[in-house]
Specification:
mainly alpha
Length: 152
């Protein structure tokens, strides 16, 4: 008797509404996952398109000799393996632009750091060379002045 609801009490469809809200949230998550998957596919397709352009430009280049025999599709050749990495790095770049995660993004960061280090070293070497040139120039000027003084 205690579980019976009196006739004058209006029952609210609480359970049905909770089910509906849960289903809506699931639908939103599915839609989000589908959208993310579409973006990933587009990034990969764009990377492959870039590969096709590079392959055509490299193997069909009539201005630079020595690369026409490169075969990026022969799995036994190192250039194929290298190009696979390059394609994944491109895809990783496109993923990052779309705010998606890709396992090669860490490699991009490491590569960027290496480039920064190389640029820094190059700048230091340039500065050292310029400093040496200035020192040599000053030395020449000092020697020239001392030679002029010796003539008297």
């Amino acid at each position: 008797m205690k579980n019976e609801i009196p006739d004058n009490v209006i029952q609210f469809p609480t359970f049905e509404r909770v089910k509906q809200v849960i289903n809506e949230k699931i639908d939103v998550q599915i839609e989000k996952a589908d959208q993310e998957e579409i973006q990933k596919e587009e990034c990969v397709e764009l990377a492959h398109y870039c590969f096709q352009l590079m392959d055509q430009a490299i193997t069909g280049n009539e201005f630079i000799d020595g690369f026409e025999d490169m075969d990026f599709l022969d799995l036994s050749k190192p250039e194929c393996k290298d190009m696979s990495v390059i394609i994944n790095l491109l895809a990783s770049t496109f993923y990052r632009y779309k705010e998606l995660k890709h396992p090669f993004q860490d490699n991009l960061d490491i590569g960027n750091q290496k480039l920064d280090d190389l640029m820094s070293e190059t700048e230091e070497i340039k500065a050292e060379v310029e400093l040496k040139e200035l020192e040599d120039e000053i030395e020449k000027l000092l020697n020239k002045e001392s030679e002029e003084d010796d003539i008297d």
